[in-house]
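To illustrate the input format used throughout this study, we show a single complete record. The first block contains the structure-token representation of the backbone; no residue identities are included at this stage. The design step must infer an amino acid for every position from geometry alone.
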């Protein structure tokens, strides 16, 4: 047998063996996923059923006189003694909330874990609760990501940019990205940069902080953004221009250019971004790309000045604010309640 034949035979055996390894590995990955999903389903339904038992017991007789506020305290002690961890008073409180919020077990989504529901049940408003459920499913948020979005009052921020019909759509479907305006949040919340601790910072520091915390920034931007680069160079005539951040939006099928401004957005910033968009449209975009979107992101903006600066511009160009601290939920909720009351 020739040396070449031996090498060829060994290679064939090696390829078959690698295929065998891949098949078995894939089998076990899928099996573990199914097992985890099955366990999650059973635990979620058991938590719901526990909540149901508690509510039915409360409604069944003189529980207030006999047990009063001690019911969950006593249950926590006795169930922990009999069954181990997982039955502290806090968990039992949220199991009860789970049943009250979802009286029909079939309305629970098994795509979400008990840990997701534990956070979502902290919402006082049913519309807000529905919104975060849909967003977790649509965007595959982990619990950590859900917590951040709830702290940043994402529901209230998005809801305040629409009307009552839009608020109901948010709750029923989640945030749908169908047009350029749908990716704008005013303000964008960038608390993760850590810059509020500094009294002064430069635009370059903000840009660096966003790149360092790109995972958090992409979460704030929303689904569909893919990071392309920082300080993207454009050679126009004898000059070189740079746009701070460039993304590609996989849903809208277009480039998104973001220019950062440490202070108030000026009318000249709008003209500069318009220049960038014209360049991208001509030099960078492919025939199957949609027109690029430009966002000038500043700490402040004068609404009237921006109205005049943007008037007559045919490109998809937006001026939006950012803030380096988490918003106050109570203030946003008050504004949202006023909006819904006015609509009524």
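Output of the design step:
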């Amino acid at each position: 047998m020739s040396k070449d034949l031996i090498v060829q035979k060994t290679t064939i055996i090696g390829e078959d063996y690698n295929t065998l390894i891949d098949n078995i590995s894939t089998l076990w990955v899928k099996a573990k996923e199914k097992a985890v999903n099955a366990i999650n389903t059973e635990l979620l339904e058991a938590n719901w059923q526990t909540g149901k038992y508690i509510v039915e017991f409360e409604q069944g007789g003189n529980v207030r006189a006999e047990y009063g506020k001690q019911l969950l305290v006593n249950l926590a002690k006795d169930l922990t003694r009999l069954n181990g961890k997982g039955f502290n008073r806090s968990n039992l409180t949220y199991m009860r909330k789970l049943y009250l919020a979802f009286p029909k077990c079939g309305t629970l989504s098994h795509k979400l874990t008990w840990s997701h529901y534990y956070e979502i049940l902290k919402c006082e408003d049913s519309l807000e609760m529905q919104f975060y459920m849909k967003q977790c499913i649509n965007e595959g948020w982990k619990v950590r990501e859900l917590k951040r979005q709830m702290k940043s009052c994402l529901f209230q921020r998005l809801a305040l940019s629409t009307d009552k019909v839009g608020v109901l759509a948010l709750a029923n479907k989640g945030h749908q990205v169908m047009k350029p305006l749908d990716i704008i949040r005013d303000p964008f919340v960038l608390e993760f940069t850590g810059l509020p601790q500094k009294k002064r910072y430069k635009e370059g520091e903000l840009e660096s902080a966003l790149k360092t915390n790109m995972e958090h920034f992409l979460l704030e931007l929303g689904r569909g953004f893919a990071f392309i680069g920082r300080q993207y160079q454009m050679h126009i005539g004898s000059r070189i221009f740079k746009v701070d951040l460039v993304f590609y939006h996989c849903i809208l099928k277009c480039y998104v250019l973001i220019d950062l401004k440490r202070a108030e957005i000026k009318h000249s910033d709008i003209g500069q971004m318009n220049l960038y968009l014209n360049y991208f449209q001509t030099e960078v975009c492919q025939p199957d790309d949609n027109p690029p979107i430009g966002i000038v992101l500043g700490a402040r903006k004068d609404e009237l000045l921006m109205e005049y600066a943007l008037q007559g511009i045919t490109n998809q160009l937006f001026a939006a604010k950012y803030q380096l601290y988490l918003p106050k939920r109570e203030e946003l909720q008050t504004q949202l309640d006023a909006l819904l009351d006015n609509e009524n």
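Structural context for interpreting the output: The chain has a mean pLDDT of 90. The radius of gyration is 27 Å.
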